[in-house]
Design brief:
Blueprint (H helix, E strand, L loop, with lengths): L40 H38 L5 H20 L2 H12 L9 H10 L2 H8 L3 E6 L14 E7 L8 E2 L17 E5 L8 H14 L8 E7 L1 H4 L6 H11 L1 E7 L6 E8 L31
Parallel strand pairs: 1-2, 1-4, 2-3, 4-5
Antiparallel strand pairs: 5-7, 6-7
Helix pairs in contact: 1-2, 1-3
Organism: Kwoniella dejecticola CBS 10117
Pfam family, one: Bmt2
EC number: 2.1.1.-
Length: 320
């Protein structure tokens, strides 16, 4: 007689073995799956990061659209040319915009989304670029050798610690219109008192992703002029650090990279450093304060189309 063949049982994962208290077989966990099936933890984190980044950017973009429309309607409402019927429609749309802003969580939600957008996981904040540039042009070495700190005004600060690592040579004053931290001064830059002396003025003003958020071209021009007045005189090394969405200068009907340089010369700035790439989303610029130029032609006190097209934006800056 031949030997009876013993049928081998296929081994099951531990999680699939029923216990005395279980009558059904539980599904295998991701740890029990083959390596080709289980999703690596790093990949799961990366996917969550991508999703969060898209949600964050979507929230910020939506706020920008709503607030820009809100500012436009408020200007129309205060003009004398609107009939009563038109004013009613404008008020109705403003009320709808307020509801949309509240539905997004209000301005607090915008600030939180913006803060998340500059987290280290997202590549850090623009302060790293500024600190590197200040080191390259020798301001860090100069401040350390003279035993003083550079006075800086950070407009639109989201967190108070952007320059904490450089606090030995940078004395930062962070301000924001809607402060989300007790160490950030809640202040409207347009209403900030001008310095009475060169000692009260700043060596550096940081304006990162703020100018594009100002509602009108004239107010943007006014902001640049006020920044010029907040900085120390031309005999000192005084700088404006600016960050803008690159399409503001590369895809606008009214502004180009070249024309913006001309405008800044009129305000009183010469370009020291820049960092951007074609097709990029953001550009960085460092401007050195100099004497303002005369705009005798009035070229920068009105909007003029440089390049037109259906896909171009309406970003513009005019001097008041």
């Amino acid at each position: 007689m031949g030997r009876n063949k013993v049928k081998r049982l296929k081994k099951l994962p531990i999680s699939a073995i029923s216990t005395a208290n279980q009558s059904t077989i539980s599904a295998p966990s991701s740890a029990d799956l083959p390596a080709s099936t289980a999703i690596p933890r790093a990949d799961r984190r990366a996917k969550r990061s991508v999703v969060s980044r898209k949600v964050t950017q979507s929230t910020i973009s939506r706020f920008h659209v709503l607030l820009k429309r809100q500012a436009y309607l408020k200007r129309r409402l205060t003009s004398d040319s609107n009939a009563d019927e038109s004013a009613v429609l404008i008020k109705e749309e403003l009320a709808a915009i307020d509801q949309d802003i509240d539905a997004l969580g209000g301005l607090d939600a915008y600030q939180i989304a913006s803060t998340l957008g500059q987290s280290n996981e997202r590549g850090g904040d623009s302060s790293k670029v500024l600190v590197r540039w200040l080191e390259e042009i020798g301001l860090k070495r100069e401040a350390n050798s003279q035993g003083h700190r550079l006075r800086m005004l950070e407009i639109g600060a989201l967190v108070p610690t952007n320059y904490a690592a450089s606090s030995r040579w940078i004395e930062n004053t962070p301000i924001d219109l809607h402060s989300q931290h007790p160490d950030i001064l809640e202040e409207d830059f347009f209403k900030r008192t001008l310095p009475n002396s060169n000692e009260e003025a700043f060596d550096i003003v940081s304006c990162s992703l703020v100018l594009n958020f100002v509602s009108t071209p004239a107010e943007r021009g006014k902001m640049l002029e006020l920044i010029h007045k907040q900085l120390k005189n031309e005999s000192s090394n005084a700088f404006l650090f600016m960050v803008l969405p690159l399409p503001c200068l590369t895809n606008s009907r009214y502004v180009s990279l070249a024309s913006f340089n001309e405008l800044m010369s009129v305000v009183g700035f010469t370009l020291e450093k820049e960092q951007w790439k074609l097709g990029g989303k953001v550009g960085y610029w460092l401007w050195r304060k100099c004497a303002s130029e005369q705009d005798s032609s009035g070229k920068w006190r009105r909007k003029a189309i440089l390049e037109d097209g259906p896909r171009r934006n309406n970003f513009a800056v005019i001097l008041p």
